[in-house]
């Protein structure tokens, strides 16, 4: 399936940057429209601001020491977000909002929640080792 990419590097509300979607090392943005639509739906279900640790990553940034993610990461396809979360109450609310928004691949971690809509991967709730 060919991906359709979201053209803007940011999503703004009332002039304020809400989400930075581009890769932090090079400014390239290949987040898909499908992922952005689901993220926006998730924000509405959650009812509070959502903060992204990571959206699109270029291959170089994805492999860099600070990230060191797998070469199969859905962030490389612009189909994934890591959402900052620091407590179990918010984590549950975010998982609920993610499911309502249509994300069917979710990975809770201590400090963030990974959500993606990668069409090439199975729907699941996975745990970080
Ligand atoms: Zn980059």
Question: What does this 3D model show about the protein?
Answer:
- This protein has one domain (2-125): Muramoyl-pentapeptide Carboxypeptidase, domain 2 (2-Layer Sandwich).
- The chain has 129 residues and is α+β, with helices and mostly antiparallel strands.
- The strands form 2 sheets. It has a 5-stranded mixed β-sheet, with helices on one face. The protein has a two-stranded antiparallel ribbon with strand order 1-2.
- It is built from 3 helices and 7 strands; from the N terminus they run E-E-H-E-H-E-H-E-E-E.
- 32% of the residues are buried.
- The structure holds zinc ion.
- The site of zinc ion has 7 residues, from helix 2.
- Residues 23, 25-26, 28, 58, 60-61 line the site of zinc ion.
- The shape, in one word, is globular
Strand order, biggest sheet? Answer: 3-4-6-5-7
- Taking the alpha carbons of the first and last residues, their distance comes to 30 Å
Calculate the mean pLDDT score and round it.
Answer: 90
Main β-sheet description: 5 strands, mixed
Rg of Cα set: 14 Å
Q: Tell me which CATH architecture applies here.
A: 2-Layer Sandwich
CATH topology: Muramoyl-pentapeptide Carboxypeptidase, domain 2
- Element-level helix/strand string: EEHEHEHEEE
Count of all domains: 1
Query: Helix proportion of residues, in percent?
Result: 25-40%
Low-confidence stretches: none
**How many beta strands in the DSSP annotation?**
7
């Amino acid at each position: 399936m060919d991906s359709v990419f979201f053209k803007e590097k940011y999503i703004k509300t009332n002039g304020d940057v809400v989400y930075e979607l581009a890769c932090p090392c090079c400014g390239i943005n290949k987040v898909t429209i499908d992922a952005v639509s689901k993220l926006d739906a998730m924000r509405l279900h959650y009812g509070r601001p959502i903060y992204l640790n990571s959206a699109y990553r270029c291959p170089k940034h994805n492999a860099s020491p600070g990230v060191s993610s797998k070469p199969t990461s859905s962030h490389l396809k612009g189909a994934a977000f890591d959402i900052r979360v620091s407590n179990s109450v918010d984590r549950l609310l975010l998982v609920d909002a993610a499911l309502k928004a249509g994300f069917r691949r979710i990975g809770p971690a201590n400090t963030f929640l990974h959500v993606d809509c990668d069409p090439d991967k199975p729907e699941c709730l996975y745990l970080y080792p």
